[in-house]
Design goal:
Blueprint lengths: L12 E5 L1 H5 L12 H4 L2 H4 L2 H6 L1 H17 L4 H12 L3 E5 L5 H4 L5 E3 L2 E8 L3 E4 L18 E4 L8 H13 L2 E5 L11 H7 L3 E5 L12 E3 L3 H8 L5
Parallel strand pairs: 1-2, 1-7, 2-3, 7-8, 8-9
Antiparallel strand pairs: 4-5, 4-6
Helix pairs in contact: 6-10, 8-9
Bound molecules: adenosine-5-diphosphoribose (APR).
Amino acid sequence: MIEPLDPMAFKKIVFFTGAGMSAESGVHTFRGAGGIWSQYRWQEYACQQAFERDPQKVLDFHELRRKEALRCQPHAGHRVITDLQQRHSAVFVITQNIDGMHQRAGNKQVIELHGSLWRVRCRIHGVRLDMAETYTHRRCPDCGQWLRPDIVWFEDMLDEEEVQAAQYELGTCDLFISIGTSAVVWPAAGYPLIARNNGALCIEINPEPSENCELYHRTIRGKAGEVLPRLFAAAL
Ligand code: APR
């Protein structure tokens, strides 16, 4: 039994999402059974050193992620967020996901903490969009440098602007809903505490207990695509 929420009772709602939000769309999670990091060593595919050692191998891996994402579609949980955003002026998404699924579902005001599969970056000429299934260019057309996926890899710093934007929304929301993250990666793992210390009601949606599940006022053990429509059933 899921007690429904009235979104209009809250001034600002933040959805904080991890790989579990995309799981019912068919995108692999990173950890747990079948997780990406149980098949691939991140040291070979998801860090700057790996890219410098073998850019083609790292780009091939990310092209696979692109193909996988394009085969997948947003689910009912993503659509709940879109519907809420049409009714409520302050609904934000902070995501660790790089697959762009929120945006494909029509979600707005999405802060991408870990970057995006759909952007590449040249050290000299900066970031550009590249939405194709396979990279349009592997080297910068202007200077010939390898184009790096614009993703926050292991050992990278987070983008300061995204972090600041996330901190602001966390510190000013009164409803914080975390969905599908194992909460092992910082600083994201500390986000429920920031929201809670600022007075937000904190809810976790995850079929399994996460690392920091004790920080939540309510934990709902279930899948994003099933729980979200029921949680907001009264409003939508
Ligand atoms: N609904 C909700 N949660 C789910 C679902 C589902 N249908 N299916 C799985 N989950 C949960 C799992 O129980 C797990 O707790 O999603 C979580 C996925 O955890 P991770 O794979 O560790 O993903 P995430 O927390 O997003 O990883 C954080 O780590 O490797 C890096 O940069 C990568 O952004 C990623 C970051």
